[in-house]
Design a protein that fits this description.
Radius of gyration: 21 Å
Low-confidence stretches: 1-6
Number of strands: 0
Structural class: mainly alpha
Strand content: under 5%
Number of domains: 1
Number of helices: 13
Shape: globular
Order of helices and strands: HHHHHHHHHHHHH
Mean pLDDT: 90
Distance between the termini: 17 Å
Largest sheet: none
Helix content: over 70%
């Protein structure tokens, strides 16, 4: 099936000169490479995080593994808002409507923050039975709760950041999200080492230290990103208007809901599968968790090219240039 799809892509023919194709590929790479670097940076963080917690004990690694799996529940909501924000911002950029693109990005950030706050409130109330359902044991439950409760407190900042990064990428700026992600992940690794093991004068907090490191790093990246955006120094941005615009939010949801449903199915099945493994035992799940983290490296190139495709297709559709949108989509798919 995969081979057939690749053959189909290669068979599609557009009247594009080699010079035009080279220019298009440069545009794709200019957008895709920073997105790839940001994603690879996050993957390196998870691997380092896993390695540090693994040095504590297999039981603690299993506890963090189950808690991390439980945090995936926010991803479909975040993805829906982010995809909708990226696509609509890209369209307005294509039309030359910078002010409208900013308004859409503003509303995406507000939606992300509010949705994150709601999810945090709900999960905080049900965290104990939820984690037990997913497979924590008497040995892992206490550490899993500590990690999970602290981590989900980052949901408002995390989801708002994803929407902000999505808006910037839709406008054609994939470098600012990359820099912010690298900054956040670098700080996270330093704080992980300091707080997990009690180095550089910090207290030794074990699993709790890992959760605090992640949450603080995400919050700092969000604040820095918001300051840059609000200052008007980025490709889009300026003083944010503290007002909800339900018309724009409906547009974001109209585009984003299909992506949200897709991630619900995907993440839901992943959570069920991981929960089954977790019920096998702490050692088995710890080994599985390490494998899942390593496997995630393979997704990075495809995610980078998907960002480039979303941006270029959206901007070309905004200009009503359907042919260029198709070319960008197919070239991104081939390169990815």
């Amino acid at each position: 099936m995969k081979l057939f799809f690749l053959e189909y892509l290669m068979s599609i023919s557009f009247k594009v000169s080699s010079e035009d194709r080279s220019t298009l590929r440069r545009k794709i790479l200019d957008l895709a490479i920073p997105a790839m670097i940001a994603n690879i940076s996050s993957t390196i963080l998870t691997l380092v995080d896993t390695m540090m917690i693994g040095h504590l004990s297999t039981i603690k690694l299993s506890a963090v593994g189950v808690a991390s799996m439980a945090t995936w529940i926010e991803f479909p909501f975040a993805m829906g808002i982010t995809v909708g924000t990226t696509a609509i911002v890209a369209r307005h950029i294509g039309r030359g409507e910078l002010e409208m693109a900013k308004k859409v990005c503003d509303q995406g950030v507000y939606m992300g923050f509010i949705t994150g706050l709601i999810l945090f409130s709900i999960l905080f109330m049900v965290h104990d039975p939820f984690l037990r359902l997913l497979g924590t044991t008497e040995l892992t439950h206490k550490d899993a709760v500590r990690y999970f409760v602290v981590y989900i407190s980052s949901y408002p900042a995390l989801m708002a950041s994803m929407a902000l990064y999505g808006g910037l990428r839709g406008a054609g700026d994939t470098k600012t999200p990359m820099y912010l992600t690298i900054m956040s992940n670098g700080l996270n690794i330093f704080l992980d080492y300091s707080l997990i093991f009690g180095k550089f004068g910090f207290p030794k907090l074990d699993v709790l230290g890992a959760a605090i490191a992640t949450t603080f790093s995400m919050l700092l990246a969000f604040v820095v990103g918001l300051i840059l955006y609000d200052s008007g120094k980025l490709i889009i941005g300026g003083k944010m208007i503290p007002r909800l615009d339900y018309t724009i939010q409906k547009r974001i949801l109209k585009v984003g809901i299909p992506a949200m449903i897709e991630r619900f199915v995907n993440n839901g099945l992943m959570i069920v599968y991981n929960s089954m493994v977790a019920h096998l035992g702490e050692i088995q799940y710890a080994a599985h968790y390490i494998g899942v983290r390593i496997e995630s490296i393979s997704y990075m190139p495809g995610l980078g090219f998907s960002v480039a495709a979303t941006t270029l297709v959206g901007q070309n559709l905004g200009r009503k240039d359907i042919e260029s949108a198709e070319k960008a989509a197919h070239e991104s798919a081939k390169m990815g």
